[in-house]
Amino acid sequence: QSVLTQPPSASGTPGQRVTISCSGSSSNIGSNTVNWYQQLPGTAPKLLIYSNNQRPSGVPDRFSGSKSGTSASLAISGLQSEDEADYYCAAWDDSLNGPWVVFGGGTKLTVL
Amino acid sequence: EVQLVESGGGLVQPGRSLRLSCAASGFTFDDYAMHWVRQAPGKGLEWVSGISWNSGSIGYADSVKGRFTISRDNAKNSLYLQMNSLRAEDTALYYCAKDMRADTVSDAFDIWGQGTMVTVSS
Questions:
Q1: pLDDT over 70 for what percent of chain A?
Q2: Which of A1, A64, B50, B66 is most solvent-facing, going by the fewest CB within 10 Å?
Q3: How far is CA B22 from CA A74, A75, A101, B4, in A?
Q4: Residue A49 near chain B (CB below 8 Å)
Q5: How far apart (Å, rounded) are the C-alpha atoms in residues A52 and B46?
Q6: pLDDT per residue over A13-52, tens digit each?
Q7: Cβ count near A99 (within 10 Å)
């Protein structure tokens, strides 16, 4: 069971806007920033969003992130077929003697 | 080209040991913290362990604490994970990942290797 909670699946049609949620607690999302990773089939994860809403160089501005309280969201606008992937949220966790970093269970995005 | 290449995975019996390596190139290795993240077959990502640039700060997931040891050799641009007392539930693809921020430890990993598979089975 993952520390951060994500819906297992999401879907949309090309051109549509989809959002993926990520819920945590006061020790992780509530007190730290959130990162999002994209994992295309058969490949290593890729950093998609860091510090809640910042995009690394090369990531299209169709991808955006936000955070409020102990929850965060990833939004993908103008959905494209190549966006079909697994998406993971992650955050630093301040729990005493706990793991440094916690991940969500992942959301499989299907482009219909 | 910035690159991380893991090695050392394989099939091992429960209770035995294995040592993973990660060779880094294309960036100043000793400026950055490094991490191991694993992914069991068909499952999500799990942070396993992290180490600061100077090995002064080290952390582990509860699931591996006391069994796994992370280390690094900055002279060799290499990261290691010594895995002892392996269990079936340690079966996973192990990724080496570079911390995004220099001179600190963070939760943003901007470069990942291709992973090395560890299978624990009798």
A1: 100
A2: A1
A3: 31, 33, 20, 6
A4: no
A5: 20
A6: 999 999 999 999 999 999 999 999 999 999 999 999 999 9
A7: 23
- Predicted confidence (pLDDT) per residue in B41-50, tens digit: 999 999 999 9
Which CA distances in Å does A100 have to A52, B39, B112?
17, 17, 18
Q: Which amino acid is at A34?
A: V
pLDDT at B103: 82
pLDDT for A95 beyond 90: no
Pairwise CA distance, residues B27 & A17, whole Å: 36
Long-range residue pairs from B16-19, CB within 8 A, at least 24 positions apart, any chain: B16/B86, B17/B82, B17/B83, B17/B84, B17/B85, B17/B86, B18/B83, B18/B86, B18/B118, B19/B80, B19/B81, B19/B82, B19/B83
Residues 21-40 of B with CB under 8 A from A: 35, 37
Q: What pLDDT score was predicted for residue A43?
A: 97
Q: Which residues of A touch B35 (CB under 8 A)?
A: 101
Give the number of C-alpha atoms closer than 13 A to the C-alpha of residue A38, restricted to the C-beta side: 20
Query: Looking at the complex, does the CB of residue A29 fall below 8 Å from at least one CB of chain B?
Result: no
pLDDT surpassing 80 at residue A9 = yes
Give the residue carrying structure tokens 């819906």.
Answer: A7
- Tokens 């409020």 map to which residue? A68
What is the pLDDT of chain A when averaged over all its residues? 95
